[in-house]
Amino acid sequence: MIIIFCGQKGGTGKTTLSYLVAETLARAGKRVAIRDDDPQASVTQIVSELREAEKTEVELLDGQSVEMFDFVVVDTLPRLSSRVLIEAVKEADRLILPLKPSMVDIRATLPAVEMVKENTRPDARAFVLWNMVKQGTRISRELKTLEGMIGLPVLKNTMPERIGFNYATLQGFEALGMEDRDMLQRLVLEFLV
What we know:
Blueprint: E1 2-5, H1 14-27, E2 32-36, H2 42-52, E3 59-60, E4 71-75, H3 83-91, E5 94-99, H4 103-119, E6 125-130, H5 138-141, H6 143-147, H7 163-171, H8 178-192
Parallel strand pairs: 1-4, 1-5, 2-3, 2-4, 5-6
Helix pairs in contact: 1-2, 1-7, 1-8
């Protein structure tokens, strides 16, 4: 299964989520690779450093067939006009558009929603994920109202803004507490089922 994290806007957490979801799947006993379609190659650096430190079993997809893996997680660049991004959307089984809860981010994401709708295979599923949600804020309480503006199904599970998620990209999945790991497992189960 190919899972991609995509969107037009940078800074929504695509790279961090790509790593965390790949690691969650690997910890569940699945064979997982990450493909880095972003020229910045941030997730490649994360996985390479963690593999060198023997802190992850996640592999980098580097010429191997995707059939060798149970899951391939793809981190993409934030540019809709990219042929690489459009091709990734066409091949994906699950597409996740991370979205920070703000009107600026919602407006910037709408073109990505349309591109995903136009290029997603009929048997694939696409979702929006509220990411970096600041708990207790007014906008975090109004997420249901904002969902009507988006035009894609929105996952029930949201990801809060936590420094621990970023820290895990440096120190490995072991840096996360059980609550964060459980949250990631619930998220992955929701979009896979």
